[in-house]
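User: Could you check the structure of this?
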Amino acid sequence: MTKFCWFEYTSTEAQKAQGFFGELFGWSVRDVPMGGGTTYQMIAAGDTTIGGYLTPPESAPKHAHWLSHIKVADAKASAAKAQQLGGKILMDAYKRGESGTMAVIADVAGAPLALWQPAGKEGPAPSSAVGRFCWNELYAPDPAKAAAFYAGLAGWTSEAKEMPGMGQYTVLSAGSEQIAGLLKPPMPGAPHQWLPYVSVAKCDTSAEKAKRLGGKLFVEPTSVPGVGRFAIIGDPQGAGIGILQAE
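Assistant: Sure, the predicted structure tokens are below.
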């Protein structure tokens, strides 16, 4: 089943983000040898590695952002499928050490997404545990068109719902598991990209802490009946990420 499996913070100054997110979410960093004298800095929430910090390659955008990964059986074939469905291949499939094979695509409206073909052990699934990635959201100019793209690429099903105060919200599911949401951009200039969410114990407390640490609030803490309380923050370099206090 194709699901989100990994999240990378990409920036030319990724190390600057480590202190911010470490203080905010309690994350630590583990240096993992990647061969050739290089190391990869993994994000750990407790004993579980959930993502990494990455300096972008030459062809990637240089602004700070999160890049979500989905697990696929064949990164090269999935990238070709994305292209057939109207997307683009931003980075051809290539091996990342002994861990697996990765490609990067853009969907039908330009949102980047990594395709990860693990060579061995899979990454951790999203979790509701505090400090773990728990949800993913995409601002899509045409949610129905985006839903059709991801149905073709990943086999995800979709269901449009009316959310109080938010209008129409399309929930994407992998099998019986709800994994992500699509909605039209809530504000002018909102980037078309996947926004990962991290589970927190108290949304308001985490939002205030983010501001004290030098971050920004893009969306103030907001309650959604039946879901919980969420906010969207930016780190000091401007990379957006959601926080969610589930009901």
